[in-house]
Amino acid sequence: MKTCSTVTDAINLYSPYLDDTSSTQEVSNEMKGMLRADDHLKEREINESFEQVIRELVDECFEDDWDEYGSKAFVPASLRRSIEFFKALQSLGMNIMPNVVVESDGHIMFTWRSGKNIFSVIVQSDCWLIFSSIIGSERLNGTVPFINGKIPQVVIDKLSDIGVTAYGR
After folding, report:
1. CB 3.0-4.6 Å disulfide test: which of 31, 39, 49, 142 passes with 58?
2. What is the pTM of this model?
3. Does residue 45 fall inside a structural domain?
4. DSSP characters over 53-76
5. In whole angstroms, what is the distance from residue 100 CA to residue 55 CA?
6. Is residue 166 part of a domain?
7. Residue 44 located in a structural domain
8. Count of structural domains within the chain
9. Which among 17, 55, 57 has a CA at the least distance from the CA of 35?
10. Quick one: average pLDDT of 101-124?
11. Domain of 69?
C-alpha cells in the first residue's frame, strides 16, 4: 500500500483508481491507505483541510444509508471528478476552503459562504457541474460541463464575486 505525504501525491496516485466501474468498497480501501497522515505534511492549510474532508467522506459515506436516511454511498466517479475540480480551483488561486459534503444521491457538493452570499457546486459523475448562488439580491442556478479540468467561466465569475479566487471578471 502506498503512503502519501501530501494531498497532491494522493490525488496523483488515486486518480487512476477512480473510474466508473470501481466498487465503492475498493475505492474506500484504496483511499484510506493512500491518505494516511504523514508527520511531515508541508502543504498549505487548505490542502490539509481538503485531505481531511476526503478522509472523512471515504470513512463515513462509503456504504448506502450512511446517514440513516437512505442516502447513497459516494459515487466513485463523482469523487474522482471532485478531486479534478479541486485541482482546477487551486490553479485559479482558490483562497477559501469550501464545505465539502456527499449529497443524498452520492455526488459531491462544494459550498462557499461569504457573509450572506453563498455559492454551491455539485460535481456530477457524468462531467456536469450543477451550481446555485445567492450573491446580494442576485440568484442564479445552472448546469455547465466540466471537461478536461476546465472550470466554466460562469463558475469562475461566481467564485470571484464572493472572493474565493484571485481570477474572474
Report:
1. 31
2. 0.71
3. yes
4. HHHHHHHHSSSTTTTSS-PPPPPH
5. 11
6. no
7. yes
8. 1
9. 55
10. 91
11. 7-161
